[in-house]
Give the backbone structure.
Amino acid sequence: MQLPLFFTVLIVPSTTSAMIRARPHIRQAVTLAGLGSNRFSEAVKSIERVVIQFMNKLPPDSLESWQPSKYQNTEAFDAGSRYFINARVAGAAERGQFDALADPNGVLAAMVDEDFIHITDNDVQYYARTANPDATFV
């Protein structure tokens, strides 16, 4: 059985100047939905416990609050990664290249300059787990 993934789609601005201004906010994101799975609900509860531990150890207002999202009235988990980071913040971080699947027309690569860069920490790798007819997984 393969569970569906639900992707958030971002509409990229149509003008170059608008695209340049949008760089700090452009991201790829995914929503994982448990679809009523007890294991998924337990995983969400574990995430909530970890967030509470961090909030208790770090200075006030240093973390954003977190709560699970919803998909069709079931718990879900949103995750995302920005495509770009301010070069001053990135420091000596290793620069990355956009994967052809993420940027087939080179639009994102053309938005990189001395102010905003794409680093390897911004890369997202995609995996799928599917069941074979013999009930093994790949």
